[in-house]
User: Fold these one by one.
Assistant:
Number 1:
Amino acid sequence: MAARSDSSAESTETEFSITRVFDAPRALVWKAFTEPERLEQWWGPRGFKTRVHKLELSPGGVFLFSQRMPDGREMFGKWIYREIVAPERLVVVTSFCDEKGNPVRHPLSPSWPLEMLSSSTFTEHQGRTTLTIRAIPINATASEHKVFEDGKKSMDEGFTGTLDHLAEYLAKARA
């Protein structure tokens, strides 16, 4: 499997969106997003070590994870699953959190929205999978919306690196 063949990012005034085409079947890409041992192999920026603390793949269930930065600092994140349509769509509320899963401010950007609604769609054509991730701030103040808007370039860079990491994982993984 080739690592990457196509990628694009775009956004509207409130929505961030990034699309990537992977040379891998949808079933494998879905497993990479929904199985703890696979998520630990690729989720997060390059150089970060991800650890899954909890993954309850059901509506209302929680994915709680930590990421250790290259300098040794650790941050936690949480997804609360809102919609799961295997293997087509995941909708989650995402937030930074403490080790117990309580939402906290972004460790590097304290004005970042506390929560975002994120949807990931997976479509397959001729054995290749198109992944589109969309995110919007929810329950956010006007200033948090502005910080989100201003941070889209950084989000694009972060997701591009993470999806590069996923492409490398998929090239080596077995269904």
Number 2:
Amino acid sequence: MTVQASIAAMLACQQGNGALIASPDFAQYHFCWLRDSSFAAYAFDRCGEHDASARYHDWVNRALAGIAGQLDAATQRRLAGQSPQPQALPPCRFRLDGTVAADDWPNFQIDGYGTWLWSLREHLRLTGRRELPTGVRPSVERAANFLAAFALDPCYDVWEENGDGVHASTLACVYGGLTAAAALLDQPGLLGRARDVQSHVRAAAVAAGRYCKSSVSSAVDASMTWLATPFGLVNDADPLFQAAVSEITGKLTLDGGLRRYPADTFFGGGAWPLLTAWLGWHQARTGDHEAARRNLAWIAGHIDAQGRLGEQYGGDRRQPGMYREWVDRWGHPARDLLWSHAMYVVLSTELEAGVPHSGDTDGTDKNGPTLPRR
């Protein structure tokens, strides 16, 4: 299967209103997550499907307008030194019609707002547009102000776990979103807040002698690669970060793919194509194209005859009991995941281009809004 199969699968996930369904075949994922979908929009832009990306960003703009009061109220309460009640916090996951899903599933993750701001800036850059459209500016301002207010607060991590922690991958998304918003809005204060986040992450790493998954876990997590790729919060050459990447590959590799974290038991804790692609993306950016291509080939080998690429593989062999427990609870794991396809497309286009992209700017982007120097 070529990368075109993944592009087609992503396009098939887009609804008429621009929303992107996380998985068409897994009922629990019939929602639109800001984080997953914003990376998918970036993948659309990387492969030239700019209209699909634009339609998604328009959908987000409408969805955020629908919760404008909630965003503003949460931000104001936080700036006043108060902690809003969980049910009053803006969601990371929406119904496909743009309304908020009212259920007991953890829905407070700030990484999605950072990822959307970063993805929107990338969309404008990759389509050669220098001005932020007037109609989207209020949503960008609200999302940026909310992100700045809650930047260092505990929230659920990328895996919707550990709601009492502050997480490395979340902070990477926050940093990426704030730097993007600072450029889009020409607001230096947002860049200052991004630097607060960066200083926090670096200070914690120096104190611990290593980068850790979160404030409540010293383990590694494959999502820690986001600190460098694509958000640039840390330098690729940082010895502590290089050690983290080595630990990730050493502890989380399974049958050639990459698992989430050592203690993962979700559907047996298999290897995830999206994380394998992320490692490959980082390897491609740092010049290890051979390793990146091995990861690309591993992912391609898991695309089935129908062009589907699932969420994870190998958990049934690694922890059969936990795999069966999750199958009994939710059915078989997602066989077709938007985010898996998206990161495969990103890695493929990165290797095809062989040139630096968003995380490698020197601060003077020639194709879009001027970026703040980090």
Number 3:
Amino acid sequence: MKTNTREIKSFFYSQYFSDGLRMMIGILFPSLVLSQFGHFSLGLTLSLGALCICTIDSPGPLGHKRNAMAVGNLCLFLVAVITGFARLNIFTLGLEITALSFFFSMFTVYGNRAASVGTSALLVMIFMMDKAEKPAEVVGFSATILAGGLWYMLFSLVFFGIRPYRAAQQTLGESVKDIADFLRIKAAFYLPDTDIDENYRKLVSQQIKVSQHQDAVRELLFKSRVMVKESTSTSRILVLTFVDLVDMFEQILATHYDYSRIREKFKDTGILNEIGILLQHMADEVDNIGYVVLSNRRNKFKADFMAELENLKTRIDEIGKNDQTVSTLALKKILINLRDLNDRIKSLNRYYSSKSAEALTGGDYEDEYSQFVTHQDYAAHIFFDNLSLSSSAFKHALRVSLVCLVGFILGKTVAIGHHSYWILLTIVVILKPGFSLSKQRNYQRLIGTVVGGVIGIAILTYIPAKDTQLILLVILMMGTYSFLRLNYVVSVIFMTPYVLILFKFLGVGLVFEERIVDTIIGSSIALAASYLIFPTWEYDQVQDSLKDVIYANVMYLIRIAESIAGMQVGTIEYKLVRKDVFVKSANLSASFERMTSEPKSKQKKVKDVHKFVVLNHILSSYIATLASSVLGRPSVPNQAENLKMIRRSIAVLNETNKKLDGKVIDFSFGKATHSAVPAIQSQHPDDILLKEQLGFINKISNDIARVTDGILAG
């Protein structure tokens, strides 16, 4: 019960609910206020402009929001004017729909925020199609829509300006909770009843969420000059928390071992079950920290795992004494990682547990941490360079324009009722660059419309009171926008009764049947087009993800090799290659997940790709483990032998990337460097374990090479 209460509270503290509240107020406010002065129609037009611009109001730095919404408002006005005149003739309207659908769908080449600007422009085009404005009134009506868009833009900027750190806190809190879930999945590997292959699938799926949230936090923290240059304790704590959080994630990755082997080796001791339970308790504490960050409060109850760690050490020592033929090196390494993880948890707790956090000092982070974010290029040549069938963005834009034209024709010929624009609206919302995303949105839209429609009819039938309906309208509207990014099917379930109640207030009557029919038509066209018109299948794209992740791992290994060779590896330099591995691995996992939702006939080499995803996760985990062993050490024994093993692994990965037409990196530095450093031979247990890890990395590298050959053989 406590967990359920925590989840509910977390939702209300989250950015999702904050977004829903902001969008609901921004859209509804003009209509409610002006209706009190007898200008409801004017208020409705202003709300229409706000509705279109709110699609651009996605999480990100305030400056990016401002610029995107400013461009969105310009597009909003121009498209409203063009559509207002084009609709006077059905042929010019059809031509405009085709041309603008293509043009604005091409905005995907500039990233997600630019794509949302394109979506905003397409929305106003769709809503203007059936507006019976006279030619002399078109510009004035379009200016009113623009005023609504400008109102929402100003309201949103003020909303964030009042609490400039809140969005970063919310996103950071959600990122902490993602890592807690990742840690729980890792803990399951040590439990005897866990299916290892299935757990790997869960792990790589969760890694996608972790990476997405970490990217969102980087955007908010490191692309904002206020955050990285501000001297307040709040900004310092946010930056330091995130830096420690990424280090913690690496530490969790470093708790990776050959689970099948250690299960077989220690199955009768019960030690693995104890490790798994301890990791779950640590995950619960990380979850608590996430809630503290999300709710913006002090952490009064802090867990300390020192007693459990000491008990675990005693158990490991007992296993070694009872059976001296069994090496407990792996267990001792796990214990070290658990202690490091405990230290990082305590470090995070210190930021939120006392007023001493306010005394934290921080420097100017801008120069260092600005390197951790990517910068979008908005040069015009990118648009024109993608005007080719070799570009997935171009094929997507062509598909959208053709399908919108078909939807427009069907809306004018076979659709029932007076809201045929719902067909186009469904198409624009559902049709995505890849088949799997379009298919997913399709099912979610249909299920949400049917379930939401039933709820809407029940409300209108059994709750006739206007005041109650208005209250429900506000709640449903808030739910629509709160779940828009979190759970789309739930968002549509809220949206459908909200639309039905709204139309009832507007005197249109019950439009459920019309909405269902138009949604089915739009969904069917969009899904068929995704399969038939310039389809984009993940197998055709996955090779880019494969070579990117191999290159990232090679760079990761080179930094380790430099450290072993006695070269100075800077902290920022190391963290940049580590971040690249995390991001590229998440991209590969996301590509694989999309592949599994495509038609079976299009899932080429899906088993081999899955093997590659798992092997890549194991490889990056072992490199993280290796990094924790060698980075910062003044000298590493058996240097020449260790460097030789790393060079072998890099050579295998380079050769594999060459087959994928990827980048190949020169790694000859190791041969020249190790001769200058005296060879230190050691039989210390840690150094023996280091050699075993290097051998396992070499084995995994060769396994990746074989799996890649299998993928390319198709």
Number 4:
Amino acid sequence: MLSETSAGLKKVEWWIRLYSYITSAAILYGIAAAHVPAIIGIPWSSCEFCNCKLVCVLVFHLYEVPLVAFNTFFAWYGFKRFSAVSIHNYNSLLTFAIVSNLSFFTFETLLLFESVKSDAPAWESIGLSSVALILVTGAGLGLYVKQKIVAYLYQTNND
């Protein structure tokens, strides 16, 4: 029985590492997608009609930076802190990661609607769509990983 439990934990660890790698890649992609256009001189049109572009950019960062910081912490936790002892803590953090990704997805979708409505350049709609797709896919994968954890915990509690 101990070997079955150990094998079950190894499978859960594999899914958690995969989720951490995917989360890390999504973070890097999102940061690049948000900042590269402005760096190369083609800023996003979201703040185009604002009187103070700096305030507009700061408001975006006020919403996005805490979510990115949490996802960064969560990926690190999956790489460095996850163990059989911390599985309940990880499971709780995973719940919040799913919710924060869905919240971030909603924000990106609203930006996409505004982008389409204001006839923004196609590259903006493509960028917003890709980030939104990554976020909703990450939430779905997070639900799958959560079910793997729940199944493992159920198995260990009934052994």
